[in-house]
Structures are given as structure tokens and as C-alpha cells.
Amino acid sequence: MSLFDDADGLLPGLMPAAWRGRRFWMVNAQHSVGRRIQQVLFPGLDLKTHDDAGPLDGPFRISGLVIGDDYVEQAKALHTAFRQAGPATLLHPWWGPVRCVLFRPASIEFDVKELRVARIDAEFDPVGPGLPVVATFTGALSALVGLGTAATALSRFALGATPVAAAIQGRAVAAVATSLSIAEAWSGRAPRSARLAPSLASARQALAAATALPGRAHAAAAL
């Protein structure tokens, strides 16, 4: 079954995300949360105990897409990012910047029925005390720039005169707004991030001006 059999329902729901600054579109995300409980059983006794080893935040299990004429190059960039060692920034569309490690090997899937699209599946485990763990200024700023680039690229991809293209254009505008909202929420919490405030205010004004333009081509160029 093609991923785009129900394209009108799927495409407007794509959310911008990034790993190590490499952008993709998140379709869904699951997050485990609770306590780290270890059950202890005793031989010959109808008795068990539970040892509480502290809070559990994560892992994140995500499914996403890369979309565009350059989808193979985008997938190769994510391939390189997945192979790098150590923790990095996962820019999550709902949680914001989270410091994570790639918990299990990621998968990148191509399908002849879905040209210009590659599927991404990965599992990330947060590092640090709780969520969200705000990343470094440079790392999170780089990831936010990647989201803006992804959104504008998706906007240019949506200039065809079809209902699905119109839906993608609306999703692209919403993705830029989401990126700005993440940055605004984060700018008051991380060291040195307050310097983003003037640029964020300017970006909000530019987004409003772009969306007021008639026609998707003019709006995409301004975006």
C-alpha cells in the first residue's frame, strides 16, 4: 500500500523535525515515560517486589519522511548523521530541542511507488535530567535554521495547481510558524538564546507579510 493513498489526510499533518541539523518531516512520534521498575521474584514463594530505580523519560520512537527532488541527497545526509557518535540535538516538533543519542539503528527506506520520498524510522533516548533537555545555543540554532529551510523547500514543492499541492503549501506555512514557536519558547530558557528575540520578532513580521501575498508562487518566494 502506498504511503500516499490518502495523501489529502497525510500531507497537511507533516511536522518539521531535525537530527544533527539534518531536516526531515515527522509523521508520528511515541514517547515512553514513567518509572524504571525492576521486578524481583523469589524462588518457591508467591512473592515479588518492585525496585524503583528512578524516573524514565524516553525513548522517542519516530517515523518521518524526506521529500523533494533531492530526496536521495537528503537521505544520504541523514545516513551520515545517524552514523556519527555521541549525543546530539533532536529538534522535536512538540517537545522542542532535546539532547539525545540514537538508541537503536535507524532505517531509511525507498519505494518505487513513492518516488521523491524516503521513509525514516529511528529511536532516540534522551540524555540528562528530564525533558526537554535544552541543547546548546549553536546546535539548536542550527537545527532551527534547518527547519526553516525544510519548510521553504516544501513550499516551493507545492506550486502545482492541485488540491494536494494547496494542502502542502498550507503545511509549509504552518511549519515555519511551528519553527518560530519552538524558537520563541526556547529563547527564554537556554543560555545566550535571548539574543534571538529581535530576529524572531522580525521573522514573525516577515511570515505575516509572506502569507498575505496573493498566489502560492509569490508566497513561496517570500517565505
Task: Show the helix and strand layout.
Layout: H1 7-10, E1 15-19, E2 22-41, E3 48-67, H2 71-83, E4 88-92, E5 96-110, E6 117-126, H3 137-157, H4 163-187, H5 197-211, H6 216-222
Antiparallel strand pairs: 1-2, 1-4, 2-3, 3-6, 4-5, 5-6
Describe the structure concisely:
The protein is of the alpha+beta class and 223 residues long. The protein has helices spanning 7-10, 71-83, 137-157, 163-187, 197-211, 216-222, and strands spanning 15-19, 22-41, 48-67, 88-92, 96-110, 117-126. A six-stranded antiparallel beta barrel has the order 1-2-3-6-5-4.
Judged by helices, strands and strand pairing, the structural class is: alpha+beta
The main sheet orders its strands as: 1-2-3-6-5-4
Percent range for helical residues? 25-40%
Oligomer: single chain
Q: What gyration radius follows from the Cα positions, in whole Å?
A: 20 Å
Write down the secondary-structure element order.
HEEEHEEEHHHH
Low-pLDDT residue intervals, each spanning 5 or more residues: 1-10
Strand content: 25-35%
Number of strands: 6
Biggest pleated-sheet summary = 6 strands, antiparallel, barrel
**Molecular shape:** globular
The helix count comes to 6
Mean pLDDT: 76
- End-to-end distance: 34 Å
How does this structure look, described?
- The protein is of the alpha+beta class.
- The chain contains six helices and six strands.
- Strands 1-2-3-6-5-4 form a six-stranded antiparallel β-barrel.
- It is globular, with a radius of gyration of 20 Å.
- The two termini are 34 Å apart.
- 30% of the residues are buried.
- Mean pLDDT is 76; it is low at 1-10.
